[in-house]
Amino acid sequence: MVDEHSGTVFVSGFFLGAAMGAMIALVLAPTSGKRLRRDLARESRKVAHRAAETAERIRDTGSDAFEQAREAVG
Q1: In the chain, what are the domain boundaries?
Q2: For residue 1, what pLDDT is reported?
Q3: Angstrom distance (rounded) from CA 58 to CA 53
Q4: For the chain, first and last CA: distance in Å?
Q5: How many C-alpha atoms does 34 have within 13 Å on its Cβ side?
Q6: C-alpha–C-alpha distance, residues 20 and 25, integer Å
Q7: What are the pLDDT digits (tens) for 44-56?
Q8: Residue 2 scores a pLDDT above 70
Q9: Which end of the chain is more exposed for a tag (fewer CB within 10 A), N or C?
Q10: Alpha helices (runs of H) in 1-32, residue ranges in sequence order
């Protein structure tokens, strides 16, 4: 049986790593300061949005598991 928590952690880590890689690429790319700040702000919003979606999925999974356990017990 596959642990659902480890799968969620993997996906979260994957997206976080991808976002960090994108930000590092932006920092190392030859662009103007104004454009770099704009690009970093955009990427930061994307990361925040993905993190919120992942947190919501984790909450839903935990809630579903809790309800299944409650039904199994009582």
Answers
A1: 4-73
A2: 42
A3: 9
A4: 24
A5: 0
A6: 9
A7: 898 889 888 888 8
A8: no
A9: N
A10: 4-28
For residues 46 and 29, give the distance between their C-alpha atoms in angstroms, rounded to a whole number. 19
Task: Give the model's pLDDT for residue 5.
Answer: 65
| pLDDT, tens only, 6-45 | 777 787 788 888 888 887 877 777 767 788 788 888 988 9
Q: Which of helix, strand or coil describes residue 72?
A: helix
Question: Tokens 């690009």 label which residue?
Answer: 39
Burial of 47 (0-12, 13-18, 19+ CB in 10 A): middle
39: tokens are 């690009």
Burial class from Cβ neighbours inside 10 Å (0-12, 13-18, 19+) for residue 7 reads: exposed
**Dmax (CA) of the chain:** 62
pLDDT of residue 62: 85
- Residue in this structure with the two tokens 């579903």, named with its chain if needed: 64
